[in-house]
Write a sequence for this structure.
């Protein structure tokens, strides 16, 4: 059941994970977005909101060693729990919103919402998140999340929830990348997914890009949106761990959300990488709430 059926229940699930990257503070993203008024904004639009709180995730400070292999088990555990919560939310007929935390949480959220549904994915990000341990320049797992969902990367994470890849190339559209590692570029070119970089948006305009994106996903009954807040220009959303100049403007991002909303095919949503420690007056969380409201049907008229 999706938005097209009726104003229904939205289930808010917090995933305060900071293990997929190096900056402290992203684990407080769910609190910041709640404080910015997510539940109230959705209630005003006519939705019933359930906030089931946060899953428990150990932070960086709990690990004796913080190397790649030390972070894998707690990331896997968090993604397994997220997977089950996502699967259950869809089976219960709700629309889940997953609040990160870093983007490694999407291994669980997207895995779970696709357990019983083939759905298209719109991944909105300044980065490709298509590294593997062999190609990554940092070793950060949040930069591998999309590749892992494709079945590439550490087997412990590839097999979260169910064995193997969770997505097919024709189900994936990546919007807004502007900073990619060299080997990651090669991986993405070979991936078969559809990519609209910031240059494409500059040349064609967001309206054209989102129309083409939705055409690519026309065979998908449902759509999951995975929004990394670093996709937005840091002048408008400064509270992220990996800011990159030249991102989506506020209005470009709003048009993207409004147009996806118009399809009435939204199944679920990630809001990832909000870091209130790096933010200014909770501005990034406020932008996140405004974009979520537009995705759930708020309109100018």
């Amino acid at each position: 059941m999706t938005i097209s059926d009726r104003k229904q229940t939205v289930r808010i699930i917090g995933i305060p994970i900071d293990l997929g990257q190096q900056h402290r503070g992203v684990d407080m993203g769910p609190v910041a977005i709640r404080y910015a008024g997510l539940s109230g904004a959705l209630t005003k639009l006519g939705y019933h909101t359930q906030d089931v709180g946060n899953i428990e995730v150990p932070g960086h400070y709990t690990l004796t060693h913080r190397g790649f292999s030390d972070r894998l088990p707690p990331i896997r555990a968090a993604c397994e729990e997220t997977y089950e919560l996502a699967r259950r939310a869809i089976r219960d007929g709700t629309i889940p919103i997953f609040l990160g935390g870093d983007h490694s949480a999407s291994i669980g959220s997207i895995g779970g919402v696709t357990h019983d549904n083939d759905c298209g994915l719109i991944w909105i990000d300044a980065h490709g998140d298509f590294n593997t341990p062999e190609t990554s320049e940092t070793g950060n797992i949040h930069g591998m999340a999309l590749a892992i969902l494709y079945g590439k990367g550490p087997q412990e994470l590839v097999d979260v929830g169910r064995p193997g890849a969770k997505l097919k190339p024709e189900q994936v559209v990546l919007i807004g990348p502007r900073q990619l590692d060299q080997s990651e570029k090669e991986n993405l070119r070979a991936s078969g997914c559809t990519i609209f970089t910031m240059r494409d948006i500059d040349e064609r305009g967001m309206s054209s890009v989102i129309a083409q994106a939705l055409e690519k996903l026309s065979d998908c009954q449902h759509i999951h949106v995975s929004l990394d807040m670093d996709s937005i220009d840091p002048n408008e959303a400064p509270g992220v761990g990996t800011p990159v100049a030249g991102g989506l403007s506020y209005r470009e991002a709003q048009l993207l959300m409004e147009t996806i909303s118009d399809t009435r095919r939204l199944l679920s949503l990630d809001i990832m990488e909000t870091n209130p420690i790096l933010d200014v007056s909770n501005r990034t969380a406020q932008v996140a709430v405004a974009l979520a409201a537009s995705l759930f049907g708020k309109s100018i008229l």
